[in-house]
From TrEMBL:
<protein>
    <recommendedName>
        <fullName>UDP-3-O-acylglucosamine N-acyltransferase</fullName>
        <ecNumber>2.3.1.191</ecNumber>
    </recommendedName>
</protein>
<dbReference type="Pfam" id="PF00132">
    <property type="entry name" value="Hexapep"/>
</dbReference>
<keyword id="KW-0808">Transferase</keyword>
<feature type="domain" description="UDP-3-O-[3-hydroxymyristoyl] glucosamine N-acyltransferase non-repeat region">
    <location>
        <begin position="20"/>
        <end position="86"/>
    </location>
</feature>
<dbReference type="InterPro" id="IPR011004">
    <property type="entry name" value="Trimer_LpxA-like_sf"/>
</dbReference>
<comment type="function">
    <text>Catalyzes the N-acylation of UDP-3-O-acylglucosamine using 3-hydroxyacyl-ACP as the acyl donor. Is involved in the biosynthesis of lipid A, a phosphorylated glycolipid that anchors the lipopolysaccharide to the outer membrane of the cell.</text>
</comment>
<keyword id="KW-0441">Lipid A biosynthesis</keyword>
<dbReference type="Pfam" id="PF04613">
    <property type="entry name" value="LpxD"/>
</dbReference>
<feature type="active site" description="Proton acceptor">
    <location>
        <position position="229"/>
    </location>
</feature>
<dbReference type="InterPro" id="IPR020573">
    <property type="entry name" value="UDP_GlcNAc_AcTrfase_non-rep"/>
</dbReference>
<comment type="similarity">
    <text>Belongs to the transferase hexapeptide repeat family. LpxD subfamily.</text>
</comment>
<comment type="subunit">
    <text>Homotrimer.</text>
</comment>
<keyword id="KW-0444">Lipid biosynthesis</keyword>
<dbReference type="InterPro" id="IPR001451">
    <property type="entry name" value="Hexapep"/>
</dbReference>
<keyword id="KW-0443">Lipid metabolism</keyword>
<dbReference type="InterPro" id="IPR007691">
    <property type="entry name" value="LpxD"/>
</dbReference>
<dbReference type="GO" id="GO:0009245">
    <property type="term" value="P:lipid A biosynthetic process"/>
</dbReference>
Length: 315
């Protein structure tokens, strides 16, 4: 769509005819994409954006760099939500190539594989699995019954996806109108899973808003784990049952999170960190190779001493 067509859709006057092919963040946008600024703490990113156009308030319009069109509005985040619907792909494609299935791959009855999808060799796809359009799966991967893989997602080789898991469902993203109505932000990215990854039963990996939710090589995910949109789970990390990872969190390599532990969004955990069961990560952890526990989170040894002192008070 042209910038003018997008502007017309949200009621902004703009005569720019340049084509927009998608939406992206301030830092990752290119000259054919549209972005937005809602929070002032990202002003430095606005000044350096390469986007063709940016949704921005009048207050911050002067910070838009030369060559980028300022689409001035009162609520950039809300306008982004409305525009995201324009760029969402079809739920199901009726046109396209038949799926390609490699040699030695076994597909049980009652499996759906969408258009333009590619399944590698020596895979096993069990009954009830749904593989959406334009999905890529590597070699020697096992998909257990009733697994759902939404469109455009990729799964590497030597992976095991257990029954009932959902890969690529929409991230939990909404913008509020002034009267409290929730407007859906369409999640137009995907999920990318590396090689040698095992995901337990009934877990969910949400697709990204713009780019990819990433699960790197060698990750182990237990049953009933939720990974939010735009997260990155570093290689060799372990997420135990009922862990919840909020959107845009980054776990570096070999992070271990115990059962029912969780993170707030938009934070980073250093490599080789361990979060004990029910630990709540509310701020980024920058120092690697440490163990943490409790809520608010403190170092594990300190938490143990604290529990001991509390127990002594009850004697």
């Amino acid at each position: 769509m042209t910038i003018q067509e997008i502007a017309d859709f949200i009621g902004i006057d703009c005569q720019e005819k340049k084509d927009i092919i998608g939406l992206n963040t301030l830092t990752d946008s290119n000259e054919n994409e549209l972005t937005f600024l809602e929070n002032k703490k990202y002003l430095s990113d606005l000044k350096n954006t390469k986007a063709a156009a940016v949704l921005v308030t009048a207050e911050n319009a002067s910070e838009v760099p030369l060559g980028t069109i300022a689409l001035i509005c009162e609520e950039p985040y809300l306008m982004l939500a409305k525009i995201s619907k324009l760029f969402t792909p079809n739920v199901i494609e009726m046109d396209g190539e038949k799926p390609l299935i490699g040699g030695g791959t076994k597909v049980m009855p009652n499996v759906y594989i969408g258009k333009d999808s590619i399944i590698g060799s020596d895979c096993t796809i069990m009954a009830g699995a749904f593989i959406g359009d334009n999905v890529k799966i590597g070699n020697n991967t096992i998909i257990y019954p009733n697994v759902t893989v939404y469109r455009d997602c990729t799964i590497g080789s030597d992976c095991i996806i257990h029954a009932g898991t959902v890969i690529g469902s929409d991230g939990f993203g909404f913008a509020n109108t002034k009267d409290g109505k929730y407007i859906k932000i369409y999640q137009n990215g995907n999920v990318t899973i590396g090689n040698d990854v095992e995901i337990g039963a009934n877990s969910t990996i949400d697709r990204a808003v713009f780019k990819s939710t990433i699960i790197e090589d060698g990750v182990r995910i237990d049953n009933l784990v939720h990974v939010g949109h735009n997260c990155k789970i570093g290689r060799g990390s372990i997420l135990v049952a009922q862990v919840g990872i909020s959107g845009s969190s980054i776990l570096n390599a070999y992070v271990v999170m115990g059962g029912q532990s969780a993170t707030a969004g938009h934070l980073e955990i250093a490599a080789f960190s361990t979060i004990a069961a029910r630990g709540g990560v509310t701020k980024s952890i920058n120092e690697p190779k440490k163990s943490w526990a409790g809520f608010p989170l403190i170092e594990h040894r300190q938490w143990l001493r604290l529990q001991g002192k509390i127990a002594n008070l009850l004697k």
